[in-house]
Design goal:
By secondary structure, this protein is an alpha+beta fold. The protein folds into 3 domains: 74 residues, no CATH class; 62 residues, Helix Hairpins (Orthogonal Bundle), CATH 1.10.287; 146 residues, Heat Shock Protein 90 (2-Layer Sandwich). Helix content is 56%, strand content 15%. It has a 5-stranded mixed β-sheet with strand order 2-4-5-7-6. A two-stranded antiparallel sheet has the order 1-3. Strand 6 and strand 7 form a beta hairpin.
Length: 304
Amino acid sequence: MFYMRLLLPFMFFTIFYLVYKRYMERKRLNQLVNLLKEVESGNYSKRGVIPLNDEYSEIYYLINKIIRRNQNDIIEINRLNQGNKRILTSLSHDIKTPIASLLGYLEAIDKKLVDEDEREEYFKIALDKAYKLNEYTNELFQLLQLESGEYILRNQSCNICEETRRSFIAWVPILEKHNIKYKVNIPEGSIITTLDVQAYERILDNLIKNAIIHSRCEEISIDLIEKENMIQVKISDDGIGIPRNSKDMIIDRLYKVDTSRKTKGIGLGLAIVKELADKCNISLKYDSEEGKGSSFILGVKKAL
């Protein structure tokens, strides 16, 4: 009888513990099911409260991790969608307007609305506009190719001094045509690195072109500096610079500091630079002061 009195409380406690444990397990499972239903419905705003020292804590942690990742993916998708909308809006102006103008010149030539001298001039203008439209579409398709991950790197060993000098020299006639002075500080020796030469040349071309078209500068300089394990390529101008509130957005596709749209181009150049630099593992930094000019600095790793 004495043992029964001792055993009964123990049995009640054991039964209560098992029932409570079952209840808590059921509660945890219901919480997990409800959380998964929220995720399935596309609601990523909720998080599971991770219980300490609980057998379900790892499951909660993994679910929260999946929710965070999906939420970040949605934010990125929304950002890209906004960018695509801006692309369509910009292209409706930057391509549709030149096409209308191009058709106007061609119709004037076709219907003989101009004399022979004007006909030649109209033809040159129409041809120039056609070349610009081709350039616009090429830039757009290259950016879309880069963002989709379809661009294939073709790395090779090269002398970056030679490649940089050759790329810049190609711009000298255009700089002289625009009465822009230039300074070149590139070592005569050989500094070997491994990179996609075509992508590197496109980066330099876009940075120089951006300075010519948008900065309203009087001088452009390019410096190549060899450091311990890095090669620094700096392209600077003494143009109008970038306002402080625009610095973080200048490499965003289609963003232009001059919102009045008086400058040429559709604002894809620096976005392409950023995408190509990321693909080629080239660091990209930039600094600017309004009224004093801008500098873009590329960091390229030296060959081992």
